[in-house]
Structures are given as C-alpha cells and as structure tokens.
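Re-run with default settings, no changes from the original entry. Doing this only to confirm the output is reproducible before filing.
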Amino acid sequence: MSRKKGIEQLLLLMESLIDEPVVLTLVGDGPLRERCIEAAAMNPAIRFIGPIQDRAEMAKTMAAHDLLVVLSQRDRTWEELFGIVIAEAMAAGLGVIASDHIGPRSLLGAAELGNLFADNDLDGVARLVRKLALDRDELQRFRAGHSNLADAFRLSNVADRWEGVIAPLTDEAHKLG
C-alpha cells in the first residue's frame, strides 16, 4: 500500500466509477494503509482487508473477483518489474489491467488486450473498467484472453524450464567429476 504501487490512483479511479457496479478490494499493507481504511469507511464500494499471508486464503480471495488492477507509478529509480501477483491473478482466472511497465508488459503485452496503460491514463483505465462492468460477456472474453498467459508460470512448465537449465550443468559436472 504505497504511492509507487498506485494506491492513490486506485482510490481516484473509484471516485470516477462511483455510479458503476464496481467494488474495489484492497489487499496488503504499507505506508498508505490508513488512507485505504479511511477510503473504505467513506465509500461502500471499497473494501480493505489488509495483508493476507496464507496462500490458500489469497487464492480464495482472488477467485472471488473478476479483475486485478495494478496501477504502479514509476519514479526516477523504480518501475514495476515481474509482478508475481499478475501471474497469480491470471492463474486464478482473473483479467488484469496494469500500468505499462516492463514487468506487466512482459507478462501481458503479447496478448494485446488493451489492458496496459500509461501511469497517468486514469481515464483509459476507467473506460475499460466501466466497459467490463457493464458487459459480462465482454468481461468473460477479457478474462479468457489471459488464461493462456498464465500457463508459462504453472509449476509443470517452470519445472520443465529449470530442468533444461539444470540437466546440462549436471551432465557437465559428471564429466568433470
């Protein structure tokens, strides 16, 4: 819950979607925790549940939602890199909307789903969220467009890639040994 993770943008987004059937669930902890608690107290469409340490509970929470929205904000020395939460969300069947940073772009860019936005393009994000909130068929197509993207991060695929790295090293060690 920090500025660089786009919390302020998420709260502004909810202000612009006040009349839409959209609920924002904030998960996590950090410097803007109190700001999130206050926003949830003022807006019934915002839920703050704090940090979730248990992986099964996190998976259950994700599965209860349609979208993950990650509006990270660059600064002079940082931008969103890999973003494991994006891979986890796709594996859980969620659609993802994210800032166009190197990590989200590497995970989502090839699909060309129109879900990567410049840091300051809150209007574009709001238009997409509104469209998905009002058209369940479009939401399902959007979510389905992410399903194959998660495959690269499934345990079996990661294990196969590591096997491809480790096996030649093991073979070489046996030859030298």
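The chain is about 50% helix and 10% strand. The longest helix spans residues 155-176.
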